[in-house]
Design goal:
By secondary structure, this protein is of the alpha/beta class. 45% of the residues lie in helices and 14% in strands. The protein has 13 helices and nine strands. The chain has helices at residues 24-40, 62-72, 90-103, 120-126, 130-135, 137-147, 176-185, 200-210, 234-240, 242-253, 272-281, 290-304, 318-340, and strands at 10-14, 45-48, 77-84, 108-113, 169-173, 189-191, 222-230, 285-288, 309-312. The chain has an eight-stranded parallel barrel, surrounded by eight helices. Helix 7 links the parallel strand 5 (169-173) and strand 6 (189-191). Helix 7 (176-185) packs parallel to helix 8 (200-210) and helix 12 packs across helix 13.
């Protein structure tokens, strides 16, 4: 685990999940309020992710929502987890995030992924040449870095606002391919183990072994994702988590309807194959009371030697979600206190 002097920070990934019976406007305001709440709980970052053509996710216009969140908060870092760069021109992303960084200096992160964030038909509607751009992902990251640098001031094409802001760039990934890229570019690495756990440990090893220091980062920095539901009791947490199980069952079946309320018995809803697929996706999901989740989180930190944790939480009841995030903050503070007493 980390040295007792350096308790690791913890952050939040929000997808602006649409729940049954809620409007898109309500969902967006909940995301804004959640950022305010988690800032007060001591979270380090509030990230939002780009998704398209999904009835249960309202974060398609990611940079706009990030501005909405940043305006309502004071100190928490706000960023993308991530922007799917092949969907966009690097110049446009530099301008958008450069504008955010100009308005909210020292608080903006730019996490980049190469997946479409949607189905293939929608991906083609976003960019007909998307697959060609996927192959240029490393090249476009370097272009983006250049646009955000002060050294680009003599170029024919400039990002204004953006130039000189040097917005910190993260590589997002769920495979060893992204680990090689993050290591080669010397960038911090956020691994999507909250839904794609299989290659977490080999990707982590590759990233650390092959990391090359850069102007942005002198040593590897790993932030893996986990799903968390923390309630008063293990039983209550398991019940609340059934909304998340139903949502991920929708990923398996292709049914992306708004997230439903919790149920008493998932076996009445899914079959054995769907259950197995969902449980595999949610390997790094920690559900229970503060004491139960704390033990699991401590083990995860020890296994991964994570520098920071990015948590996702999918709960139907917004008040329960806020309470879960508060309890997670309390258990992380408890881990820090325990480390300091060693």
């Amino acid at each position: 685990m980390k040295s007792p002097k350096f308790p690791i920070p913890f952050s939040l990934l929000d997808l602006a999940v649409v729940t049954e019976g809620s409007t898109i406007a309500e969902v967006i305001e909940r995301s804004r309020d959640l950022a305010i709440q988690t800032e007060s709980f001591g979270y380090n970052r509030f990230w939002m992710a780009e998704h398209h053509n999904m009835e249960n996710i309202a974060s398609s216009a990611t940079s706009i929502l990030l501005g909405h969140v940043a305006e309502a908060t004071q100190s928490i870092r706000v960023g993308s987890g991530g922007i799917m760069l092949p969907n966009h021109s690097p110049l446009i992303i530099a301008e958008q995030f450069g504008t955010l960084a100009t308005m909210y200096p020292g608080r903006i992160d730019l996490g980049l992924g190469r997946a479409p964030g949607t189905d293939q038909v929608t991906a083609a509607a976003i960019r007909e040449d998307r697959m060609q751009r996927v192959h240029k992902f490393p090249e476009h990251i370097k272009q983006l870095q250049n646009y955000l640098s002060a050294e680009n001031s003599e170029s024919a094409v400039r990002a204004i606002p953006g130039e000189g802001t040097d917005v910190p760039i993260w590589i997002l990934g769920s495979s060893t391919d992204s680990a090689f890229l993050a290591a080669e570019l010397g960038l911090p690495y956020a691994f999507a183990s909250h839904f794609a756990p299989h290659q977490l440990l080999p990707a982590t090893r590759i990233y650390r072994e092959r990391f090359k220091p850069s102007a942005q980062l002198d040593r590897p920095y790993l932030m893996p994702g986990i799903n968390v539901v923390v309630a008063e009791t293990d039983e209550q947490a398991e019940y609340l988590a059934t909304s998340m199980l139903q949502m991920f069952m929708g990923v398996v079946t292709g049914d992306r309807k708004p997230m439903p309320p919790p149920v008493d018995d998932m076996n009445r809803i899914w079959n054995m194959h769907q259950k197995a697929a969902v449980e595999q996706m949610l390997t790094y999901t920690f559900t229970g009371s503060i004491e139960t989740v704390q033990r699991k989180v401590e083990q995860f930190i020890e296994i991964t030697d994570a520098d920071e944790l990015m948590i996702a939480s999918y709960l139907y009841d917004y008040r329960e979600r806020v309470n879960s995030h508060k309890r997670f903050s309390e258990l992380m503070q408890s881990i820090s206190t325990s480390a300091e007493s060693v």
